[in-house]
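Extended Data, panel c. Modelled sequence:
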Amino acid sequence: MTQHTAIVLLAGFVIGLVVGCLTFLSGASAAGAALAGVLSTGSSVPVLRTLID
């Protein structure tokens, strides 16, 4: 795994964790918060890949 890939995946994971926690704290169920976190991680990775080049 290259350093670029590691940074992109780590940043995507952090974004997903933050979004999931904020979603849960706003009153959503745990399943809804987990789904929001996973979706935000998946959608942020391609964007981060192009931004961090």
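The radius of gyration is 12 Å. This feature is highlighted in the accompanying rendering.
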